[in-house]
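Hi! If you just cloned this repository, the fastest way to understand the data is to look at a raw example. We've pasted two of them here, unedited. The first protein comes first, obviously.
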Amino acid sequence: MNDFERAKRFIATHDWHFAKSMAHIPHWYCLRSDQNDFERFKWFVTFIRENSREGRFYSRTYRYFYLCGYKYWDMDPTPEVCDLVNRDEYKRDYIDETTFVPAYDIFYDDAVRKVLENFVSDEKIICDLGCGSGELLEMVQCVKNYYGVDNRRDALRQFIDARPDLKGRLVLERVGNLSYEKMDVIVSLNADRLDKDDVKRVVNSRKTTADVLLFSKGTLAPYPGLNLVKTDEFSLLTTLKCI
């Protein structure tokens, strides 16, 4: 069990009370005193802080942790003194583009294909981050257990039009709002669109045996826990020591 699975278990086994005194701003909360388990509660608060990102609430800025359709946050100075965690539903983070146009580069596509062929197969569960309109599936054919994530609505609309059989496996969402502990291979052909919070979520939520391959035509910044590989055709952040 990784920490994201542990967090899901914490959420499922705690009571979430509706904040009646703030019904005009609907949200829920759980209390440390409900189960009287200080260490487990402190761990959860520490975890959501370490895996959070900044978000706005009117004129104030808080750090929110996103998981399974909810965001979580606390308002205390330290996890040790925290006795209440809030949660609220959130609207999916997506970009409502006018028209999505996929970009093709024969040299980039061919170089990436040669790498992916060594790691992608029908037996593995593949998650494609920033999947666009399905460019990965045009590169690599042997992918039965495929899932795609993108926050560009028009891109996913084009993908679904071309592959209606995959509709239930394509998620309109920001990469950093999901977790990836069930995936065997996590790929992106557009890693330059991922910010550090997105990459952090991928690294922290993946299972230890998962392969991560985040490709970009441009330059990528190093990230802790991933190796940076540069070739004439691409940059790559990966868990692999060599390709």
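Ok, and the second one:
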Amino acid sequence: MNLNLSAIWVKLQSMVQSVILIIPNLLIGVVIFFVFLFVARLISRTVLTLAERSGQPKGIALVFSRIASWITLGVGLLVALTIIFPTLTAASLFGALGVSGVAIGFAFKDIFQNLLAGILILITRPFRIGDQIVTGAHEGTVEDIQVRATLLKTYDNRRVVVPNSELYTNRVVVNTAYDQRRLSVAVGIGYGDDIASAKSLIMDTLGKIGGILADPAPSVLVDTLGDSSVNLNVRFWIDPPLRREAVETQDQVLERLKSVLIEAGIDLPMPTQQVLFHDQTEEVDGDRRRQREGWPARKANPRTRQQLERGSRSAGASPDGPPTNQSASLEKETSAESHPA
């Protein structure tokens, strides 16, 4: 079998010549792209400076500078491609992009959605860089608002990347939106303690703790009547409303209230259950108009079952008094058993 090596050699020569001819265009295209890269950085800095001078927030200035940089790089890439490949004209390139635009739109739908959401967040400014927010199961400080996502730094020094579309469409709690923030702690006192005295003691203690604002004034409200305690809701305000201040102030409040209430003789009851046996119940049990569910002290308490039984025994065993109906019936039963028919 005879191989036509001359045809292969000619083909290789033509390919090598094509590569050699394209090298100048390739070099010029790379140089042009690096020029546009330098121009993109210059434009980005210029836009950032102008936006900051005009009073725009740092986040908006960063996004607009990045968009300007990307547009410049895109134009530079198109120019470089037309230089490297002379047959590729701008019209044919835009035509190809137009044909594939639908496919690209579906493929990068989430990216475009996050891009638009990031721009809207920066324009509407529901929160800013440095704010402490809660979104879903995540809470932390906003480090950066990028075009695609927002970066959160959690309180245990971790980074959470949240897509901008989630932040724009879901609920977000901004803890530092205002200068002041209200906190609350729950304190339970005993049912036998005086509520007014406990409130007055708590208010005096709050006034001596640093970091708690006098205006708005703290307040103590009865929240619920629990199973084992009367639950009080202690409310107070702090400034600034940062996480660290909130945790430290709550720690001081709970520590002070525990020691002060115990010194004043106010009970801080633990969860307990009360079991009433049959011989410990009262004579009014069963009468829904008179029976008591708990055991609060009062002046005229009904007699217990034990007191009733002791009274019945003493009345039936009295030698001077007439026999009671119960003792008479017992005598009849005894005589019937001892004299059977």
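That's it. A detail worth noticing about the second one: The longest helix spans residues 5-53.
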